[in-house]
């Protein structure tokens, strides 16, 4: 009987201790579960900020805004957050449990993030392969041009596309005219020959500057007749003028017809 009373007394004492334990947290402070989530969000944000600083120098103000956004989410100021952290650190029995929970939440968050990154990378790779498969450009992907070159410095091209059923075509490239270039009115020029023997001529005026810039032309969209041949010049210009230029990332892709795109 004495032993039974003793056990009951111990249980009552533990219950009272537990109640007091819960009451130790100031009323205005977040409880353990919420504080664990706050810490997890803060740690995840700090990791993000460090990655931003590594990749892009001089963006501390932008990176730190992420940190303040997390505090604002929980209606906390920096001062109040520091006060809460100090209080929990002064109660290591509470803080250890909170910290363990935060680590668990971080692990879950990281696993979720990795799954999302994997899906994004898979989609990007799928789109890259599809774009690559649609690229009908038959020549090299980059050129450096100067007046010393013996080939046609306009970079002529011809592509037979009579076997392709396409909505249209898109040609693009990056151009940079170099110091010493005095080229006059350079253009990206494309001639489209249709099945009914009609022709179209499209041009994109290239800015003859030292800045690397992208040029893009779309050909044949909404035309009734099928394009059977594409010809043109990557950089048509008066060849009596001095030219020094780089052309890179050349792509000539066909745009598939809507009814040929499968929807998964």
Describe the structure.
With 264 residues, the chain is of the alpha+beta class. It folds into two domains: 2-132, no CATH class; 143-257, Jelly Rolls (Sandwich). 44% of the residues lie in helices and 24% in strands. It has five helices and eight strands; from the N terminus they run H-H-H-H-H-E-E-E-E-E-E-E-E. It has helices spanning 2-23, 32-55, 60-73, 78-89, 92-134, and strands spanning 143-145, 156-160, 166-177, 187-194, 199-205, 213-219, 227-236, 245-256. The strands form two sheets. A four-stranded antiparallel beta sheet has the order 1-8-3-6. The chain has a four-stranded antiparallel beta sheet with strand order 2-7-4-5, with no helix packed on it. A hairpin with a 4-residue loop joins strand 4 and strand 5. Helix 2 runs antiparallel to helix 3 and helix 2 (32-55) packs across helix 5. The longest helix is centred in the middle third of the chain and has 43 residues, at 92-134.
């Amino acid at each position: 009987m004495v032993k039974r009373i003793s056990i009951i007394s111990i249980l009552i004492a533990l219950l009272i201790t537990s109640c007091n334990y819960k009451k130790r947290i100031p009323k205005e402070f977040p409880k353990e579960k919420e504080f664990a989530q706050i810490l997890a969000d803060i740690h995840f944000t700090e990791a993000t900020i460090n990655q931003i600083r590594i990749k892009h120098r001089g963006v501390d103000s932008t990176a730190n805004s992420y940190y303040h956004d997390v505090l604002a989410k929980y209606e906390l100021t920096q001062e109040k957050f520091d006060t809460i952290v100090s209080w929990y650190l002064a109660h290591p029995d509470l803080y250890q449990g909170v910290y363990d929970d935060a680590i668990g939440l971080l692990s879950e968050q990281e696993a979720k993030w990795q799954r999302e990154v994997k899906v994004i990378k898979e989609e990007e790779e799928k789109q890259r392969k599809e774009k690559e498969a649609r690229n009908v450009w038959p020549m090299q992907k980059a050129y450096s041009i100067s007046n010393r070159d013996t080939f046609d410095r306009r970079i002529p091209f011809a592509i037979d596309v009579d076997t392709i059923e396409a909505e249209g075509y898109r040609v693009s490239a990056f151009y940079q005219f170099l110091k010493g270039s005095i080229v006059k009115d350079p253009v990206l020029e494309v001639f489209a020959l249709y099945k009914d023997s009609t022709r179209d001529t499209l041009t994109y005026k290239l800015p003859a500057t030292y800045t690397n810039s992208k040029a893009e032309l779309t050909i044949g969209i909404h035309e009734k007749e099928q394009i059977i041949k594409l010809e043109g010049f990557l950089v048509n210009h008066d060849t009596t003028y001095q030219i020094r230029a780089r052309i890179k990332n050349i792509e000539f892709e066909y745009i598939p017809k809507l009814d040929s795109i499968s929807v998964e």
